[in-house]
Design brief:
Helix content: over 70%
Radius of gyration: 13 Å
Strand content: under 5%
Distance between the termini: 19 Å
Order of helices and strands: HH
Largest sheet: none
Structural class: mainly alpha
Number of strands: 0
């Protein structure tokens, strides 16, 4: 059995953190550009999770 964290679980956790950060950024309304970038990164990591 392989020890360590599975790559897909790691991608899922990172994408969830990026999406939470973008939700916080969008609701505060301070810097919408950065929130959109965080949203894009979260979506990209979610796609990496899907294809790994």
């Amino acid at each position: 059995m392989k020890k360590g964290i599975n790559k897909s679980i790691l991608f899922y956790v990172v994408s969830a953190l990026f999406l939470i950060a973008s939700a916080i950024g969008l609701t505060t309304g301070n810097e919408n550009t950065m929130a959109i970038i965080w949203l894009s990164l979260g979506s990209a990591f979610l796609c990496l999770d899907w294809f790994s």
